[in-house]
Amino acid sequence: MLEKCKELKSPAKVVSTTELIMKKIAICLPIILLWVCSGLSAENIYNWTDKNGIRRFSDQPPPREVKQYKTIQVQPNQSSEQEPAADSRPGYDRMVEKAKGETQKDEQESIQGEASGAAEEKQNAEASMKARVEAERQRLYEKIDAINKRPLSRTYDHSFKQARIDEIQKQLDKLNNSPEEYFQNQ
Question: Which residues of the chain form beta strands (DSSP E)?
């Protein structure tokens, strides 16, 4: 009977050893897989210039209308020591901060460009109005000269000539005082 017990103990030990190995594998395998897979994961940073000329950086792909962009692949830190989360990707964090700074700078330049464009547009409008006023003034003076050069006749006497000149002079006064109003009535 003792031998029967020894025979029974032996398979029992094999089963318990197998169970022990299986338990170790069941515990270690997921840990090993997580460790290996974390090293394989990488993140992409997308860099493109939008239609307003502003450089953009994102972890999401750019909109479909953007045809040209750069993809930067960022590998996570693979050091064996456990580091705090803030220090785990210093290169990535520096790149993100640099990108944010460039984006802010580009946005400020865009705003300044728009303001500069508006000021330039206003200057161009003023210069255009000034040129238009000067051309109209010249035309009216030429009209007065033509009236003065016209000879008098029975149907074109001095009072009729003076009335036409006075009428043109009123137009000149209106042109000099309020050009916008003058051109609206033309």
Answer: 43-49, 55-58, 70-74
pLDDT in tens, 36-67: 665 555 677 888 888 888 888 888 888 888 88
- Neighbour tally for 106: CB within 10 Å: 17
| 178 belongs to a structural domain | yes
* C-alpha distance across the termini of the chain, in Å: 129
Say how far apart CA 126 and CA 140 lie, in whole Å: 21
Give the chain's domain count. Answer: 1
Q: Looking at the domain assignment, is residue 163 inside a domain? A: yes
Q: How many helices (H) and strands (E) does the chain have?
A: 4, 3
Domain range for 150: 134-184
CB 171 within 8 A of CB 140: yes
**High-pLDDT (> 70) share of the chain, %:** 79
Question: In the numeric block, which tokens belong to residue 5?
Answer: 């017990």
Q: How many angstroms separate the CA atoms of 95 and 100, rounded?
A: 9
